[in-house]
Amino acid sequence: MRVRVLPRETAAAVITSAVAAMGWAVAVATVLLTVPVLVETLAGAGRLADLPLVLGLLGVVLGGVVAVALHPRRWVVLVFLAGGGVATFLYQLVLLSGANGFGPDSPYLVNRPALALVLVGIPATRALIGIAWSGLGLVVATVVGVLAAVAADVPFDPGIGAAMMFALTAIGYLTLAAIQARLRRHVPNFDELEYETWALAHGEDLSRRTTAVLHDTLLNDLAIVMNAPDRLSERARERLLGDLETLRGAEWITASANVGLPQEDAGLRNALSRLVSEYQWRGISIHVTGSALARHEITAEAVAALLGAIRAALENVAQHSGVTTAELEVISEPGAVTVMIADQGRGFDPGAVAADRLGLRASVVERMAAVGGQVRIWSAPGAGTSVVISAPTRKQPTS
Amino acid sequence: MPGFVDRRLLRLSAQEVDPLSWFTGSLVPLVFGALNLLYGGTFAAVTWATSREPVVQLVGVGLCTAACLLVHVLTRPLRRPLGWTGGAVALLVAITGFSLSAVGYVGVPLSIELWWAPFGLALALGSLGPYLPARAIIVLGTATTLVATPIAFLAIDAGGLAWGPVSTIVIIAYPIVAATVATAAFSLAVVARALPLIEKRTQTMLSLDAPRGAENEHAERARLARLTSRAAPFIEQVAESGDVTSADRSLAGQLARQLRDDLVTQSNLSWLDSVARDRLVVVDPDHQAGRMRASQRTALRALLRAILDTPGTDSGSLLVELRAHPDGSTAVGVSLDFELPEGRRVMFLAPYYLALRGSVDDLQWSDDRFLRVTFNLPAGSPPVSES
Fold this sequence. Notes:
A: alpha+beta; 5-stranded mixed sheet; about 60% helix; B: alpha+beta; 2 domains; about 10% strand
């Protein structure tokens, strides 16, 4: 989801054009509310015979407003101003003419349809355009009023209705334009900020990728050297050189390149390296052998259990074995990864460990059982200890 | 037009859909209040000699103007949405002014077509346009018409008018009805046009490859070169010779520790730290920053940057704290000793606050000199890449 902010120019256009919708609504309300006043006033003046004609002319104006609202195009508005102007002229002529004509005392009733002419514009994107349309409507309304007064031979009285509607429309447009102008000064460019967010996320993505690759290459290579015999095997040398080539090319530092290391697998191997390093700092020399470089698809829960179990086994070596060296062998098998931790220390009798005693049982056996793995322990007093821990994997390992 | 069947068009206000357009939008009630004062004051002055209680007219004008000012105050940027209650209170104030004016003209020959009070009430109603949904405007406007028109009819009709009773009622009601219709139409038009624009944007995903890809990749290559500058030549030398000495093992251990430290440090950095750069304190022990969506990150980052860029800000006191709750949600707090005067602070920070309000839940903003912003991220928020 993006920040819910419209670009300022778009927002300005939306709001300014909404003023046109206000105009249409008021125009419709004006015409409709004129009807009861017209009926009562004509009845009071004994001119009910004129009612169908003036109602019909009001209907023409109303139809024009609806047409503009449904099809707010320039030519539709111009046709409406022309047709509505004629209808307004006839409406005013009928009311102003005759012995009981509504003269200068009743501009309110006479001018009603003229208001609709002022209020109908097109959805303008700029305030000045909206004001110009309303101004054109005022001109048409005024010309129509003058012509009707001349034709009916009565003094021209425009009233204040049309001018007031024009003023209100102009003030509405100008107020909203002022708001938009202030906003442009105060509102930051959230589009740019959002773009920066994505750029930062992209940078983080690359950093995570670099971190993962360095863990899986250089850091593991250093661990290999730390635990290597005096002469590296050909396979180990190839691995080191291959990793260096990976780092040198760094082709994976692109947004589209896929490093292809399942996160859990990288986590397992990196965590294993860290564990080994940690215990080496505590005085236990650990020789890592086997397929430590194989990649597995293994669940996060299994990784956590496996690492916890390995840590508990190494802790056992550090605290109880009485020796300072241990072997850690990683064995990849179809459907499982197995880690064996072996020492040549004093050992113990597994049968003599109390059933309620925590330690290897809770830390190792139960932890692995919970994720579908298993633990086997071989030990005897004076014969060292071997702990074999297996965790299920999802597919065949690849080197 | 499918938009017309969308109930949200009636239930959302223009301000809710596009809050940023209205954070300086309290200009609308101010302008309407000024119009009220101008027209009502002029009308009261012109009818001063014929009015039985001319002062009452001024009080009425004042109340209708006060209604607009009340809307202005209630819709300041950091306040809660106006709501039905706020709108009703403002209209009650305006109706009181309208009624006083009607009573003041009892028995006085009056051109009701030009009477200021219906117009003043209409302006008060119109000032609610940006802040209330169309539904509320229609209900409140109808209620205002039904309450105000009979009061005025009963008071003014005694004066003996040229219009018949139906016409009198219609003429009194016309400005109020027109304002109701116009304001509702305005609200509907803004919501109907803005809502699809905003929602359409949510479906537009920027490609992760696009933003500054080359720039980021260049920076990452530089970082990689720095991280591997010692270890890579060493591994190369060992791999080529094939021999490993005790000194090599020792050096490998040193390099591994150093590299691991560097990588752990890098892994612990969040996007918030990239904003911080020693200018703010980030407390995020549970690494919750990574759970924020892109829109939330943008909004919060923009707010933090705005605060940090504010002259006179003691950036050392800016604290951003993220705490995980047992229910999986995350509380985010931003606090700062902030000494800007409230007016400037509101104008400066309101756009960021409003943008943030559109992206998070339970946003709260304190009004005292210590800026405190708190909000919750719901449990299970997707990370930025899933937005």
